[in-house]
Design brief:
Strand order of the largest sheet: 3-2-1-4-5-7-6
Bound molecules: S-adenosyl-L-homocysteine
Number of strands: 7
Low-confidence stretches: none
Largest sheet: 7 strands, mixed
């Protein structure tokens, strides 16, 4: 099995099958999964293609989305990150069975821990349904090399959320470089794709203590 379309379909089937045993995703029909997992994951192919070459990471990957579809389609060396060990064990075993585990690795741990081990190693990161933009850019900054990009999948971004991110982007060494909106083929699922690029060194020591990025987001220095 090496056709990419077959691999993508096979991965969906295996995830849905595993979902009967462990809760990996709320989506449980293959028809829904084709849109909300596959089509949605792949909407950022243009952003992925224009990101610098090199290591790709999916932050808070859950059942492997958008990480696995993007890894299969782009062929990039990939690390999927999630702190829930049970989820990562299942995703890893599926990737193993599909002979994908030399290209796509899993890391069962916190993003903050990975950034101590792999500081500045990543060229591109994605995050879907993980956390608010200010927390995302703080978590991503220490993992990215200069020029590396964080691609955020959002359903809706309020003005406050965007402003809070733009208030601290310089502090963490990131800058917003693009934003676009789209609707998936179901005609109802709205997406905003927002890209931040690492522009320089953070002005504070990152990562902060585990949990702080999400529980106590950075505020601008006055
Ligand atoms: N990206 C997937 C899953 C979203 S749920 C999808 O869109 O389907 C968010 C996931 O992020 C959860 O599985 C949770 O365990 C993980 N997560 C949240 N904060 C994290 C952190 N700091 N480090 C690692 N994983 C985290």
């Amino acid at each position: 099995m090496n056709n990419k379309t077959d691999l993508l379909e096979k991965y969906l089937q295996m995830i849905l099958e595993a979902n009967n045993r462990v809760n990996l995703t709320r989506i449980d029909s293959i028809e829904q999964a084709r849109i909300l997992h596959l089509e949605d994951s792949l909407v950022t192919l243009p952003e992925m293609k224009s990101a610098p070459e090199g290591l790709y990471g999916d932050l808070g990957t859950g059942g492997g989305f958008p990480g696995v579809p993007l890894a299969i389609t782009t062929g990039r060396e990939t690390i999927l990150v999630d702190s829930v060990k049970k989820k990562m064990a299942i995703v890893e075993s599926i990737l193993d069975q599909m002979n994908l585990s030399s290209q796509i690795k899993t890391y069962a741990g916190r993003i903050e821990e990975l950034s101590l081990e792999k500081k500045g190693n990543f060229s591109v990161l994605t995050a879907r349904a993980l956390t608010q933009l200010p927390s995302l850019i703080e978590l991503a900054a220490p993992l990215l090399k200069k020029g590396g990009q964080l691609i955020c999948y959002k359903a809706n971004v309020s003005e406050e959320e965007m402003k809070a991110a733009l208030d601290i982007d310089e502090l963490v060494g990131m800058k917003q470089t693009s934003q676009r909106e789209l609707t998936l083929s179901d005609g109802v699922t709205h997406r905003e794709i927002i890209v931040f690029t690492k522009t320089g060194k953070p002005k504070l020591k990152l990562p902060r203590r585990i949990g702080l990025a999400q529980h106590s987001p950075l505020k601008p220095r006055s």
